[in-house]
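# step 3/5: fold
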Amino acid sequence: MNLRVFVTGGTFDKEYDELTGTLHFEATHVEEMLRRGRCMLDVNVEVLMMIDSLEMKESHRHRIVDACVACTETQIVITHGTDTMVETAAVIAAAVTTKTVVLTGAMVPYAFGSSDGLFNLGSALSFVQALAPGVYVAMNGRCFRWDDVRKNRDVGVFEPLGEA
């Protein structure tokens, strides 16, 4: 069994530029994270894009869908920015029905050292192996159906729609 990880950017892969005080993208950290986490799974990592999810357009989402449909793996993890993760999950759910897709991200960049990204990636890899086909969001040890989750910006967590 092998899994596919599609990288799309988001806080997960941002770097801090000390000279300008801004966040930017250089390269994904996913392969390093898999090594650090001593991942024993057969994982194929593919970078689709490196953008902030607030800059994601429908064309980007369709590129993600096309990649999910085209890949031979039936278990897919997508690293994604948290601000529009649910919107992307909805587009994927409308087109990908026979595969298990889990979107995950981070509130703090992996490069900062105190990131939740490594934990979230590990959780997503576990969830994708155990869940039935469908589209899910995995954050902070919890997993949600794509249509029953929201980002609570007040406390910085994902929660079920009914929770407030």
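# step 4/5: annotate
The radius of gyration is 15 Å.
# step 5/5: archive (pending)
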